Structures are given as structure tokens and as C-alpha cells.
Amino acid sequence: MPETTEASGGAPASALSFDLTAQPWIEVLMLDGTQVALSLREVFAQAGDVRRIVGDLPTGEFALLRLLLAIAHDAVDGPRDIEHWSQLWNDPRCFAPVDTYMDTHRSLFDLFDAEVPFFQTAGLRTAKGEVFSLARIVADVPNGEPFFTARMPGVERLGFAEAARWVVHAHAYDTSGIKSGVEGDDRVKGGKVYPLGVGWAGNLGGVFVEGHNLRETLLLNSVAADTSGLRFEPGDRPAWRRGPTGPGGAERTPTGVRDLYTWQSRRLRLYADPSGVHGVVLGYGDPLTARNKHVIEPMTAWRRSEAQEKKHGEALVYLPREHDPERSAWRGLASLIADRAETVKAGSNVPAFLRPGVLEWVARLVTEGELPRGFLVRARIVGAVYGTQQSVVDEVVDDHLSMGVALLHRQDREYAQQAIDAVADADGAVKALGDLATDLQRAAGRENDAPRAIARDRAFGALEGPYRTWLSGLAAADDPYEQRTRWQRQVYRLVGRLGDQLIADAGEAAWAGRVVPTKQGSVWLTSALAHQWFRARLSKSLGHSHDDQPSDAQAPAAADPSVKVHA
Fold first, then answer.
1. Are residues 311 and 397 in the same domain?
2. Does 13 share its domain with 32?
3. What is the pLDDT of residue 447?
4. What is the reported pTM?
């Protein structure tokens, strides 16, 4: 399919209708393991029997969840405070008002309404009347380039249900780059609009809380309007209740989560016929900078940026803390559960990091007794990683951590601190293994960083499953310190075995050894000595808490475990 076609060859989809309140279009996984498509009414009516949303990509799940949250907030007009939330939590029919809400606003949820097509701009067109390939909104074929997709070589047509999902996704995660200018947009220069950034959710290291079913998930992420640190204006409302959008964008500040979760970061218009959607016009919409939006965006962690403070002359600037695709969620646990007071650096009185507002909200729920300490949730992290000036999607991050809500308790921080320190135990042990790999290379007369990186990756991989299992049971333990000691012993055993394997595979050159310089003077480094240093470092990193640590007699006087022999 060519990149563009002339609009005269086909009409916009205004003569069609696809009612999102009644037509099945949201893919979900039921508690019984079946996967089905549901309409908006059905999703809320059956939320207690739905396990979770199934997106075309994990980012699609995040975008659709935020859409459902905006509907829920608007339909129940809250939760206003923690008492209102408690009433909703204890009422199996808490989402019954959604049905009346859908009756009232049904015309605003038609994908092809002539005046207010859902999440689109009626009459949107370029000066030349072009209609573009659907690859512009289908994220697994960005700009025609395949990305983990079976759509080869591209996407020529979509069913109405899938097209609706990609429309929601485009507002949340569309790439940046030069886009075709549309008539009426005063930002157009030479028929183009130059890069204005990715869709709003693309700026975030997305975080949300999963319960046992979709009903619990929606409620756990429904932050009450009286939550400190977040701003909710009385006139907050979602995009469909703000009236039709024209071409171009409006500079304004979101009024609350209903507005932000449905933020119109793009202007788009689908072209379709009765057999499906075959084209799109896509342009930039309402701009929104990520700086200091922590007072309104609860579904990401935040980091202080001193560079941005200097650039903008502001006393304090927080930016979203994006996900690192090279780092599993468990290794970044502190960003999810550390209280802001625990992230204050020496010599400062402001936090370096802020945990996501949804987790602050769950912390409030458990601290005030609305959730039992043993209640288990999954903290899901979802994000897009962009490349080449944010014009393409390089990777999609999707991970989770199961944990008891006791780890978020504001007053009782013992469990959280032991969980965070247990990650530090793993980091220290992995570093010791990396040092061993480097020592063995030097003992063999080689200078190669690759074995160190491979050893570290292998160790983190070996520890990931055990840590997740340990964390999920931590809140139910009577003594978090005893649990930490058990974890240290497990780390010692697992990483120790990996070290033994490195020694066994080191070869004769490392066994024979060679003279290498150290801070304490030259030493004849062999695989045997490297192994002794490794065991000493491993013991030190784990606080000598394991059962099978080597005795002092095993370590020769010449082998100082504090000596670092790698460059």
C-alpha cells in the first residue's frame, strides 16, 4: 500500500457507526483463562470476572486501563475521599453508575460520529487531501518498519475494534518526528509540523497496581480526590466531555486525572468503509511538558533534575522516572516502595525521588486499615523506549512484582527496608562474581570485559526468580529480619555455585597464573587465589550471614579481600 492516497478516492467514515459502549472491542482475559472482546458496558459489568485487559502491546493495556479509569472516575464522580472509596470497594455493584453514564454520553463514544468521532477530529485534512497508511498509528509497524510483528510487509486495513484500540494508543504513545500539517493548525510550516514530542504516556515509566481481578485493579488505581500531593480541580472531566477538538493544539494545564488520562496529544481522523478502516490523517494535538507534573500524574515514579532546575531557573524540578529495559523490575524496587523521606540525600531537605502516586495511594489505604497487611498486589511497570529522536519505538518494557501491601505501610517501614536491602545484597553478590570473572581474565593474561558482563547477567538471572518468590511471601512473615537472613544465605549459595563454575571453566592459563599489580603491591594471581578473594568478597557483601562461609584459615595472609584487582 502506498504511503498516501488522495482523499477523493474514498470518503471519511462519517456515514458509518461503531458504538464503543455496545460493540465488543476491548480484549480481556477472563478469570477462567478464556480471552474475549467486550464493549465498554460489558467491561464494567463483568469487571469482577475479568483478570486483566489484553492489549495488542503492553502499552495498549496501559492506555486502555487509563481510559477505563477516566470513565470510572467520571461515572461515580470520585472517589471523593477514602470513605467514599471504602464504600465502592465493599460494593460488588460499585460500577453500576457506568451504565447510566453510557446512556447519557452514548453519542460521544461512536468511533465514526459525524461531529464528535471518539478521540478524533471531524473534518481533519491536509491541504492536499492526503490519506495516510495505518502504519502511522499501528505501533508494531511504526512508519512501515516491523517491530515484533506478524504484519508483513505492513498494515493495509483494520477492523473497527482494532482501529479503536490503536486510536487510544496513538494519543498515549505515538512517536515524535515531523508530521504532516493539517488545515487550520497554525504550527504548520511548509506543509509540515516539526517534532513536538511523543504522546503523553510515552514520557512515563508507567506503573499501576493489579488486584485479583479487573474490578480490584480499577479501584486500587482510583486515587481519591482528597489525596495530598495530587491536584484535582472541581471541573475535571475527560476529553469526550470537553467538546469537539479543532485542528492544532491548545496550551493548557490538565485539570485532573480524568483530563490527563484522556489527554488529546494528537489530532487524527480515520478513513473507513463498511468492510474496515483503510487510512488515517494524523497530526499533533495538545502539547504537554513533563516537567513538574507529579502533582497531577500518579502512574509513574519521579526523579529530581538539577539540570532542569538550572535550565528553567526553578527551585525544584521533577521529571518522570523512565524504565530501563536492561534492568528488571525487582532490581528497581526502591523506586516503587521507598518512602520519599528515605530518598533525601545528605545536605538536602527534598527527596531525590518520588514513588508513583498510585503506590502512595495504596500506602494510605493500608496505613489507614482499608486493606489488610497481607493483601497481595502486583505492581506492573509498562513503558515505551524510543529511538532516533523519539521517531521510532525501539523497545516496550513490561514487567511486574508481586508483593504484600505491608511493604507500602507508611509507619511500619521494617518490611520495606528489608526488601530494599535484599536487592542491595543481590547487587553486592553480583559485583563479587563480576570481580571474579575479571580476576580470572587477568590471571590468564587476558584483558576482556565481556566475561564480567556475562557473569553479572547470569547471576541476576539466577537470582530473579528466587527474589520474586521471597518478596511475595515477605509481608506474611513474622520477622522481616529473619527473612532477610534467609535470603542472604540463598544468595550466597546461588552466586557461590556460579563462582565455582567460573573457576572450573577458567582453563590452565588461569590455573598457572601470572604476576599482576595491586594496590598492596604485586601478587601472583591464580584461579585458586581469585576464588579465595571471591569468597571473601561474597561473605563481606552479605554480612557474613550465611552458613557455609569459608573459615579464616582458608584465606592466605597475602589475599586481602578488600583488594580490587580489576581496572
1. yes
2. yes
3. 87
4. 0.91
